[in-house]
From TrEMBL:
Main location: membrane
Pfam families given in the database record: BPD_transp_1 (PF00528)
One GO CC annotation: plasma membrane
GO biological process, one term: transmembrane transport
Keywords tagged on the record: Cell membrane, Membrane, Transmembrane, Transmembrane helix, Transport
Membrane topology according to the record: Multi-pass membrane protein
Protein name in the entry: ABC transporter permease
Amino acid sequence: MTATDAGTAARRGGRTRSTGWLAALPLLAFVALAFGIPAVALLLGAFTVRDPQSGLSSFSAANVAESLRGNYLATLLSSVRLSALVAVLGAVLGTFLAQAVVTSRFRALREAVLTASGVLANFGGVPLAFVWIATLGNSGVVTKTFGLGESGWSLYTFWGLVMVYMYFSAPLMVLVMTPALDGLRPQWREAAQNSGATAWQFWRHVGIPVLAPALLGGVVLLFGGAFAAYATAQAMVGSTVPLVTLQIADALTGDVLIGHENIALALSLDMIVIAILVMAVYLPLQRRSSRWLR
């Protein structure tokens, strides 16, 4: 092959499209079936209103508007408040626990905590609600033993649900933050000490900026887990604490006015929008803080 032929072949190769994406076709097809079709159906249903008299359906924003008023808006705001509290408190507690594990000299303790965190982070639903009801419910063992009911204690409140959600949120944050804390090099702390920096200055100017991507990711993860949780709240508090997931379940079972059957889809669309807004805030912050790791 001459030099001219080689150059022509190289130019042709530059214009040739890669066919490597063909290997991802099965995954793309699965994503389209598992996520794409339900998302399209949800979007169409949220903007579809049926006339109770004629039975005809039409496109309208009435369902979305209704989902942002009255009791529906109250449940949405309550879920956001609950999720934000669980995310912040779980992130703080989980980070301190992870720091204690990383700085511990006992390897057995580290392995035990990480193993327990892996189990507890996936422990939820009705079994988790049963454990807490049997322990701190109105007739729970601890409640009866120490007479907590006489002092006005009740597990079936907003703050009781926050405490229960912390049971799986804090261990999840431990799993997220432990590798990040392991990435803090001892040489950085030594260099800061040799430069006369205090422990607070080290964490403010070095430690926290380096850990920021993991911290932000953990907060978003905890927020999403609490925001989408259903079974634990349903089994423990029922309708005592207004939550959007419980409201969606009631709407799906027919607890709506005639002609507003798709209000559950509109509430689901509201949840998706909130999740997108959270990610829209998280991604720029994560990109900015990740510069420290380059």
